[in-house]
Amino acid sequence: MIVFVIAEVEIGREKEVSGELAKVGGVAEVYVLTGEYDVLVKIDVEKPEEALDLIMDKIRKINGIEETRTIFAKKIK
Length: 77
Description:
CATH architecture: 2-Layer Sandwich
Strand order of the largest sheet: 2-3-1-4
Shape: globular
Radius of gyration: 12 Å
CATH topology: Alpha-Beta Plaits
Strand content: 35-45%
């Protein structure tokens, strides 16, 4: 199951937070963005509960993350 998390990060901490996110087990990819959100995280897990645990227990606890949005996705192609 693929899950995307988009996050707002404290100004000036985008690279630092992205580096911390890249170290988290279960995180497949991390991108720095421009626009309304600052970071995009791709998570690859087996069950929705695993994604929720990862987001609540690890991702949201990283210093510098101010807000997150979670998108559960189904790959078509």
